[in-house]
Amino acid sequence: MTDSATPTGSAPEGADPEALRQRALAALLTARERTALLTDSVDDQELTAQHSPLMSPLVWDLAHIGNQEELWLLRAVAGREAMRPEIDGLYDAFEHPRATRPSLPLLAPAEARTYAAEVRGRALDVLDGAALDGGGPLVRSGFAFGMIAQHEQQHDETMLITHQLRSGTAVLSAPVPPAATDAGGLPAEVLVPGGPFTMGTSTEPWALDNERPAHVRDVPGFFIDTTPVTCGAYQAFIEDGGYTERRWWEPGGWEMVREHELTAPLFWHRDADRWLRRRFGVTEEVPANEPALHVSWYEADAYARWAGRRLPTEAEWEKTARHDPASGRSRRYPWGDEDPSPELANLGQRHLRPAPAGAYPQGQSPCGARQLMGDVWEWTSSDFLPHPGFSPFPYREYSEVFFGPDHKVLRGGSFAVDPVACRGTFRNWDLPVRRQIFSGFRTARDL
Fold first, then answer.
1. pLDDT band for position 303 (50/70/90)?
2. What interhelical angle do 17-40 and 109-129 show, nearest 10?
């Protein structure tokens, strides 16, 4: 059993270098267009403000994006001298915690935009002349360019989280996602038969180090929810005293609930007999049929216990999303190997909310599970650990320093994730207390 070899619609290792070049160019331009939308939609005062101690000022993210692009594409790939060496420390994410970044002598908005634009112009020149069919591992198959496009899109998602946390009127808008036309006929859960499957990848050209290498995992059979847990289902947990019953909670989760007096997901509040939420500056009634959003791992785990179920392991989640029992191979995505499209998944900030549970029937996996890609990041029960045979690349700080029991794995991406940073092997991780992220979950049970 091997990993998917030459997927349709992808740019596999060894592909035509001009196709790789165009793919990299499109990914970089798409990311920058989104960065501009997120930073141009607010004034300079809001760009430099810290809207939450959990997040950086938007202007920090903007210059950090440019700085990382300079470090990797201009210095590491092209061997050029530093443009602004004096700012490297300011935009080192490990050197300064988010809460302290407003006190740093950051580039002003106009200067940050100019710097990022100058870096981008030079980076595109580097891309134009790069030998993507040879050279070292940074250049081969356009990896460094894909890595930087993914990095920028990840910070765009971070900036979108900051937009959700900011107070004031709405500055972003998007159409509503498609309806779930056949959701009423869906089973509550689907069966994933036991047996081996290939987890991870050794062939996806822009896969990051923690996704590698491909390896076989033997997973016993289990049942898993057809869709993510909905707001309506989560309300039942709340109304049944979910936040007042210690027995459902891990000790750290119960401490979080008591310390912060939690009664519902982040951004929810009670108004008489209904629940309301704030979403990007708009207050609206919580939609019962939409996947629950802004829940921590502790909340997801408590709900699962209350429901008599559990969170799926990371291996169970990936087998649900990728394994094709008919061929015995692992797909790139739940629907197959072709790249995501608007008919298959809610990705790329196309909509500013999850689609109703049961949407995107064309995007379901072979076992019948839906919305495994996009809509909400899904918490798993697993700690963030390396795959067997893991090797850090191109730097330890991307993955290796986070391995261990402190971080839980999320899979699948959210509506805020761009397709370049979302695939069946992509791994996200965060602390179990995190609620500002676009996170939800689905539950599982043993056979």
1. very high
2. 170
